[in-house]
């Protein structure tokens, strides 16, 4: 299945016909746009403190109200989109790259390489991920870069297992044997023949992974060990929501809706890609 | 069966060694080593506790000797003394916090089963019906809603606006003066929201899982046979199909331990519940390394135990596993 144009077009058509997946994609595009052009969606500065207008409910001047320092909540939610996006993509990039490497090596070479790597995966999976993330962050300074690295470095095991399983079955296939008969080396077989065929499941895992990473980042920032104020992130706006829970519902409601829609978008798109890549699994 | 359990137990030994190795390495990869990191960044650590730590880790010994000692202490659950002002043994602090965390998680697991199994079975049996479509939408929403955000909204609705439920702690101020029934009611009143929210994350996943299991089973030949014999649909669904669809759920139960533990950090912090999750959070915030490593290790043990129980439970329920 060396991605011939016909198959690619088929895939795209199936994906677009899936209304839920298309809706998910639209939500994701919307948030991309928000991150790229925040000025278009919010007229206020996200960090401009205004002590006269503290904790004002939604109004014409501040459509989503103001926080405990009088900052415009809409502006903070809009600028927070970029943080979420960045964390989601970088963390998943790290996790996917690592998982791909480990999975390919493990599945292709087998033997002791496989045994060592897979026992290491088992070991990593023994630790509750959220515990592991918090522990590592306790040793470092909480910052957006550390958060991305830590979420990525604790999230690659699923991808590794997935790629390993795919590789194991792919390397026994006739087209790999044919390539080998033509004199292709291991590197060529791995990168030309095995890797391209694992892309569909990886794409599904990565899309769902972005959703997971965004959720994790928001939880960490909410707990005060993620993205640090004054940089706005959906999670740390919610911290202000909790601190002012008796008087300012708008601080709690809106950032959460942003998280909800973003995560929903990636989940729907991920499921859509899965169905489009393998229509037999549809409806599971 | 005994042979299966013995073999399964043997498989956990290398994992236990692995857990200890990872936590050992983590302590040593910390900037400045276990003592530097702990004390430089923690103003509360005194010169005395620094000396105690040095002796505790035996940093003058070669690495493999240090690791051997670490392994020995882990086997006896000795994680050293906390950096916090009280300086009590970490194991003791964890022990008094575990019951409430386990109580909430067990209750929420019960809730997940009570709700998710009927929902999953019904959606599968009536695939494509209005109920199925609504529950599918709810499942997707459930996957996307951050639990801590839902907790905030529930606190605003039931705690602040309606004033029905308390929003923090596990007992009222007058708890001690209540009778035994009053105490129980007070506790239930405080735990209602935390248990609902702890279970929420698992609900979506479990009902989706139950639905796909059920769909899988219902296509099997023996279900068709049962129908062909003229059995009533209820008997076919509950006696024949559901019993087999439930089997893999045992596994999920065991595998959900790490997620539940991770979740307990969040909801115990939000609701100010004095459990292990809150203790862990406090440890992270004050860089109390012995405490962090202690809870991380206990968490890994509990995860391993969950996996073990899942496998053994599955083997008990399904003869094909223990013979294969």
Summarize the helices and strands and which ones pair or pack.
The complex is a heterodimer of chains A (284) and B (324).
Chain A: H1 5-17, H2 19-36, H3 38-41, H4 73-109, H5 111-126, H6 129-139, H7 144-153, H8 157-170, H9 174-181, H10 186-222, H11 234-243, H12 249-277
Helix pairs in contact in A: 1-12, 2-4, 2-12, 4-5, 4-7, 4-8, 4-10, 4-12, 7-10, 8-10, 9-10, 10-11, 10-12, 11-12
Chain B: H1 2-29, H2 33-40, H3 47-57, H4 63-75, H5 90-125, H6 130-144, H7 147-161, H8 180-218, H9 221-228, H10 233-255, H11 257-270, H12 276-285, H13 289-317, H14 319-323
Helix pairs in contact in B: 1-4, 1-13, 5-6, 5-8, 5-10, 6-8, 7-8, 7-11, 8-10, 8-11, 9-10, 10-13, 11-12, 12-13
Structure description:
The complex is a heterodimer of chains A (284) and B (324). Chain A is 73% helix and 0% strand. Chain A is mainly α. The longest helix of chain A is centred in the N-terminal third of the chain and has 37 residues, at 73-109. Chain A is elongated. The model of chain A has no long low-confidence stretch (mean pLDDT 88). Chain B has 324 residues and is mainly α. Chain B has helices at residues 2-29, 33-40, 47-57, 63-75, 90-125, 130-144, 147-161, 180-218, 221-228, 233-255, 257-270, 276-285, 289-317, 319-323. Helices cover 78% and strands 0% of the residues of chain B. Chains A and B meet through α5, α6, α10, α11 and α12 of A and α1, α6, α7, α11 and α12 of B.
Which short descriptors sum up this protein?
heterodimer; A: 284 residues; 12 helices; 0% strand; B: 324 residues; 14 helices
| Largest sheet entry of chain B | none
Order of helices and strands of chain B: HHHHHHHHHHHHHH
Order of helices and strands of chain A: HHHHHHHHHHHH
Give me the secondary-structure category of chain A: mainly alpha
Percent of residues in helices of chain A comes to: over 70%
Largest interface: A-B, 46 and 55 residues
Amount of helix of chain B: over 70%
* Portion in strands of chain A: under 5%
């Amino acid at each position: 299945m060396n991605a011939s144009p016909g198959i690619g077009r088929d895939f795209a058509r199936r994906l677009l016909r899936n209304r839920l997946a298309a809706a998910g994609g639209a939500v994701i595009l919307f948030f991309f746009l928000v991150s790229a052009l925040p000025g278009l969606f919010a007229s206020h500065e996200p960090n401009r403190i205004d002590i006269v207008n503290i904790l004002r409910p939604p109004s014409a001047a501040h459509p989503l109200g103001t926080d405990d320092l009088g900052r415009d909540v809409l502006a903070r939610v809009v600028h927070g989109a970029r943080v979420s996006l960045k964390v989601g993509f970088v963390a998943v990039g790290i996790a996917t790259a690592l998982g791909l490497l480990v999975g390919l090596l493990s599945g292709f070479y087998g033997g002791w390489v496989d045994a060592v790597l897979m026992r290491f995966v088992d070991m990593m999976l023994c630790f509750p991920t959220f515990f592991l993330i918090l522990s590592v962050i306790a040793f470092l300074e909480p910052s957006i870069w550390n958060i991305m690295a830590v979420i990525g470095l604790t999230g690659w095991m699923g991808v590794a297992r997935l790629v390993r399983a795919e590789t194991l079955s792919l390397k026994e296939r006739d087209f790999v044997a044919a390539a080998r008969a033509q004199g292709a080396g291991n590197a060529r077989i791995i990168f030309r023949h095995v890797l391209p065929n694992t892309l569909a499941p990886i794409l599904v895992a990565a899309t769902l992974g972005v959703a997971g990473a965004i959720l994790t980042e928001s939880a960490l920032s909410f707990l005060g060990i993620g993205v640090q104020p004054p940089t706005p992130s959906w999670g740390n706006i919610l911290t202000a929501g909790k601190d002012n829970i008796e008087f300012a519902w708008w601080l709690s409601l809106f950032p959460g809706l942003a998280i909800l829609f973003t995560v929903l978008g990636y989940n729907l798109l991920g499921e859509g890609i899965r169905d489009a890549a393998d229509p037999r699994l549809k409806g599971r | 069966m005994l042979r299966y359990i013995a073999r399964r137990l043997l498989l956990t030994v290398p994992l236990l060694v692995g857990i200890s190795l990872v936590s050992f390495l983590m302590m040593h990869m910390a900037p400045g080593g276990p003592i530097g990191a702990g004390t430089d960044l923690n103003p509360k650590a005194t010169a005395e506790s620094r000396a105690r730590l040095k002796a505790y880790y035996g940093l003058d010994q070669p690495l493999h000797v240090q690791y051997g000692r670490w392994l020995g202490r882990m086997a006896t659950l000795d994680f050293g003394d906390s950096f916090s002002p009280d300086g009590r043994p970490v194991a003791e602090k964890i022990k008094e916090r575990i019951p409430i965390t386990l109580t909430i998680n067990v209750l929420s697991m019960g809730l997940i089963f009570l709700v998710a199994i009927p929902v999953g079975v019904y959606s599968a049996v009536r695939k494509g019906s209005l109920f199925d479509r609504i529950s599918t939408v709810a499942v997707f929403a459930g996957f996307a809603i951050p639990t801590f955000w839902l907790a905030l909204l529930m606190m605003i609705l039931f705690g602040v606006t309606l004033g029905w439920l308390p929003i923090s702690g596990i007992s009222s101020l007058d708890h001690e003066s209540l009778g035994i029934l009053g105490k129980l009611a007070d506790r239930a009143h405080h735990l209602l929201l935390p248990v609902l929210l702890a279970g929420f994350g698992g609900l979506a996943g479990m009902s989706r899982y139950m639905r796909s299991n059920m769909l899988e089973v219902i296509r099997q030949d023996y279900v068709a046979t049962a129908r062909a014999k003229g059995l009533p649909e209820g008997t076919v669904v509950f006696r024949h199909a559901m019993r087999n669809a439930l089997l893999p759920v045992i596994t999920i139960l065991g595998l959900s331990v790490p997620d539940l533990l991770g979740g307990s950090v969040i909801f115990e912090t939000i609701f100010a519940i004095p459990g292990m999750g809150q203790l862990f959070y406090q440890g992270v915030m004050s860089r109390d390394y012995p405490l962090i490593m202690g809870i991380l290790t206990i968490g890994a043990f509990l995860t391993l135990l969950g996996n073990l129980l899942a496998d053994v439970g599955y083997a008990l329920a399904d003869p094909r596993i223990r013979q294969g």
